[in-house]
């Protein structure tokens, strides 16, 4: 059964409203409606970067009957330093996981030039069109330029995408799946289209739906499962292309929802707008790349660890004699040597902040962090987060 989401056209008016959920616990593989042509074993140009693409490359590599050669394109290695996406160290070299996988399997590797993907020159034999050539992408991070797309037959340029398109078109489908509370998701294989037609707008040639999103899912726990599903799906699609039974189905335009790039500003907690559950979902969705943050006495402060707490689970006496109805009010709870910090969120919901990270300092537990506050704040037992 096709998993259908009745999502609004385009991106939701508020990023924190819970979109309608629909799904099934059963995973179903679906294919569409225009027949492709039989072909010889493929010469594959495979473009990717991270562990999601690694799973697809491994699955295809193991299907030795499907290909005669595989060439791999990866983002260029680069130095990342303090404040970089992947590290707080002074210097660290980023090497795409797909590159390491390709090296392990002794496949030819072609990095994207530092000048950008538009300057990339396809290696032989992909510099000349052929019906046996196929372009595969998965979590590549670059938009394929038209001049490269045109070297491949329309049905031989495919992308593996970790969502049920057209839901969550864009750069961060897994993050938005978790952040908005979807209970079920899936993987799609789509035809790659030129940029002007829209990101992730290609016809669908295969999909697996009914992949459960656990209530405590994080990006790091959900992605590997979707990666495994995607690898198996891609092999199925390639077999259908090879034997002439692959079909393509247009996306349903009324079900589009966008998954834009995750930004630093998106990671800022809006205590008066977001409930504790919404903040918790956002934390699980994006903490690996953009830690959530707030300001404490005008100082930007990262939230290193948090969890949602039901009002009935708040410690006895926490609110005694306090007016904590204002979102952003943080209250220190003391019990012996234990120190816990509870924060009021929208709709009278509550979070417990377990660790914080000040710029240029180590991650601190609540006790050590609170001891660094001004005496007046320490004595009051409360502070406002903004």
TrEMBL record:
Alphabetical UniProt keywords: Protein biosynthesis, Transferase
Domain Formyl transferase N-terminal span(s) in chain numbering: 135-237
GO MF annotation: an example: methionyl-tRNA formyltransferase activity
GO CC, any one term: mitochondrion
Annotated Pfam families: Formyl_trans_C, Formyl_trans_N
Domain Formyl transferase C-terminal residues, every copy: 261-373
Enzyme Commission numbers on file: 2.1.2.9
Top-rank taxon, per record: Eukaryota
UniProt family annotation: Belongs to the Fmt family.
The protein's name: methionyl-tRNA formyltransferase
Organism: Kwoniella newhampshirensis
